[in-house]
Amino acid sequence: MPAPRIKICGVNSAQALDAVIAARAEYCGFVFFERSPRHLTLAEAQGLGARAAGHVTRVGLFVDADDATIADAVAASALDVIQLHGEESPERVAQVKAQTGLPVWKAVPIASAADVERAARYAGAADLVLFDAKTPKGTLPGGMGLSFDWSLLAGWKNRAPWGLAGGLSPANVAEAVRLTGAPLVDTSSGVESAPGVKDAEKIAAFCAAARGT
């Protein structure tokens, strides 16, 4: 089984970005959601986007954002991929893809087999379905270190390209890859020393563990 591609999300400093590049992760995630401790301003995103160019694929994370918010962030940080992490419908996913001309990933919160079935709605619209843990009502939609029962994904059967998020850390990512065969793994809080503060050693350890090295 080939090693999974790796995304480190919530990158919000030059030091964190340099650690992601040094660890050879394929993707870095920039968060454009003001309630998140990892939120970037457009000015911050511009600097990080330029620093990442040519080294790592830039993914912008949005939560039920309007067209202008997405367009401004794409322009500022030269995003390569859009990740929608809210209540966006398959129609909205397709619309964002058409408007930006970029690949669009859709994060889907999972707590039950029915949630996995609902994710199938996005199979035609999204370029990748990212399975994440469902968070408690009224809290952030991700980045909280929560995981879900990975065996629920057994029924997915590659209906569309997919990735695994939710509570992944250097300690459990190898097991997650072994059990699910995830072609992409995504972490944020699992490689932090405090909310929004990335840890270079944890980033390196996560990437090594995910690759089985």
From TrEMBL:
InterPro entries (alphabetical): Aldolase_TIM, PRAI_dom, RibuloseP-bd_barrel, TrpF_fam
Protein's recorded name: N-(5'-phosphoribosyl)anthranilate isomerase
Gene3D superfamilies registered for this protein in UniProt: Aldolase class I
Pathway noted in the entry: Amino-acid biosynthesis; L-tryptophan biosynthesis; L-tryptophan from chorismate: step 3/5
PANTHER family: N-(5'-PHOSPHORIBOSYL)ANTHRANILATE ISOMERASE
Catalysed reactions, as listed in the record: N-(5-phospho-beta-D-ribosyl)anthranilate = 1-(2-carboxyphenylamino)-1-deoxy-D-ribulose 5-phosphate
Protein family according to the UniProt entry: Belongs to the TrpF family.
Gene that encodes the chain: trpF
EC category: isomerase
Molecular functions per Gene Ontology: phosphoribosylanthranilate isomerase activity
Keywords of this entry: Amino-acid biosynthesis, Aromatic amino acid biosynthesis, Isomerase, Tryptophan biosynthesis
Domain named N-(5'phosphoribosyl) anthranilate isomerase (PRAI): residues: 6-207
CDD domains linked to this entry: PRAI
Enzyme Commission numbers on file: 5.3.1.24
